[in-house]
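hiii, so i know i said id send this last week but things got crazy w the move. better late than never?? heres the sequnce for the chain we talked about at the cafe, plus the structure i predicted for it. fair warning i was half asleep when i ran it
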Amino acid sequence: MAALVVACCLLSACTGEPPAPPPAPSSPPLPEPTTPPPTGLYGGVATGGIGVELLLATSPPTIFDADSGTRATLPGVPGGDRLVSVLRVGRTPVVLTGPKCQRITCDPADVYVYLGISAPRSLGKAVSAAPGADGTSVWLIRQDSPDNCRLEHVALTGTSFGQGTVAACSTMVRQETSYGLLITVGTGTADTVDVLIDPATGRTVQQAPRILSAAGDRLVLAGLADLTVLDLRDGTRKQVPLPVAQTTPLIVPSRDATVAAVDFGTPSWHGTGTQTRDLWLLNLGDRTWQQAPSMPFTTENLKQSGLDWTEAGDLVLDDGVVAAWHPGEPAWRLGKAKLTGALQAPGVVTS
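okay and structure toks below
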């Protein structure tokens, strides 16, 4: 190193130029914040309302208008101390409701198709359910006996596309795309793995320890310090640096699968009991990030809230209030009605 410095000095003397100045010191890293983010989502209450209706995963499920409040609870669906989840299939919500349990595997849930304020349509019982790629059907894991399950494809009208194929009861179905059905194998075990399969043959299309989401032609894979966007059209993989140090965020793709909402929720901010939420948008084409307005913020509803997209491309968040934001807008539009008590639950848009 000393010889290199001498050589540089000799070269400088030979050319008659003064020595190059030493490099400027690099900027020190920004200090970690010492106080938590502001409490609650900031935005403006829309004068004409935001026009969003949700089906909330309460027991029984609740139809909730963001501007006027509760419309009704779903008739004919059992209530009480039950485990309830909702998913959207195309433009139609589907409900799973079953008794709470402490075991790794629980009894199958009752599956219902939302039909507005009319009594919903029953699709029988299933261990798990996933939206079909056509937007008019679901994939179900049916349990015929304690150790015997099968994968079945069922239209939202109730028509079955055959008796189905044998599946492990620990298999969780998640999402179908035109490239296959995303499932998690070995749910609740140390050998959990995520697989994209051809549901007709069972052939593995792609496999990874953790596939966070399927969005159109792409899969989003978890990494040690980044995400990977896998293009199923040509098999290319592009790594995406994370804007927040959290490798397993919740990812909810838009309906056209061009962008995805990525929720970097933190249940214990700096080791405290404070929960924070930090929402970003990931452009799945050019893999760029955009932070949503009013982020991050402190919340008490990290596990009792939901994200969804409207057909018009608005991102909808229910966290104390129902809020809508169209990418590019400067702020969230807030509904007038508040979500309090048992109403604070994950929800999906009803259309």
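btw Residues 53-209 form one domain. thought thatd interest u
miss u guys!!
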